[in-house]
Design goal:
alpha+beta, eight-stranded antiparallel beta sheet, five-stranded mixed beta sheet, 5 helices, disordered C terminus
Length: 323
Amino acid sequence: MTDSLVQVTSKQQFDDLLSSSRIVVADFYADWCGPCKQIAPLYASLAEQISRPGLLTFVKIDSDKNQDLAKEYSVSALPTFLLFRNGKVIQKVQGANPTELKAVIEKLASELESLAEGSGSGSGSGSGPAWKGAEIPRGYSDVTSEIEIRGCELLNADDDAGPVRVLFESSKPSALTQGATSTAKDWVQSGADDQLLLFIPFQSTIKLHTLQITSFPPEGNTDVSRPGVIRLFINRTSNMDFGEAEDAEPTQEITLGPEDWNSEGTASIGLRFVKFQKTTTLTIFVQRGDGEADAVRIDRIKLIGEAGTKRDMGKLQKMEEDE
């Protein structure tokens, strides 16, 4: 077993891996299985090339020794490769099919690189398990990885702060790191006034349950505040302008006060789940900051809910076909 491959010996160990790594690829095999042995070198090679601690983890599960896991995930043929995102199965590859397995994993790795693009070497999300600004509600998962980063647009952003992509980093905000020496600006801030307008497209249809926003205005600086009033809109085909965001009926409007922010600087906002069942885009309009400050700042945004099937599946096998 190489350093890039984790041999799973218990359900608890596997559950821990699912919670500590954003993406997990699991190879269910048996020692007596010829096709399993045939494809094992390719799987090990892919693990060696692509695995990233805390982000993309490759594991092997002996189905004979872990019959509880094989039963839980309905493994009926060997080998079976299951791909997990945020703890949930998103794809399945059955049999020793090198071409399909390689295509599936390389596509997944490419998407992961796109998400992590620009995160910086000092605070990259590959340095360990993702930072949590607040607890994730039971029964749901972090679906921030479903965001199409390149399609995001932020209006009224201060050019001296960070780009929009820093909002979705899984690393701990620099404002929380004592003695941090990094000069990277891993937050966004409004420019002309205390309004921000953020457009977020998704790679798949999302069910949104909770919006987590982290904000750390500089201590002693009364010119910058946390968001105070937020209006949410879903399924717009492009970003709104500020006039439209002011006048249109929002899907939900939220008012935040000092009591809503925890010790990690995060407000965990419960959404009207029935209204966010089929979300393809989310527009976040910070209508005003909390107080009289001239600018508003956001360090991180995390989205909690359930991810659907990607719209462009390519060769990937949809799980619904197996159910």
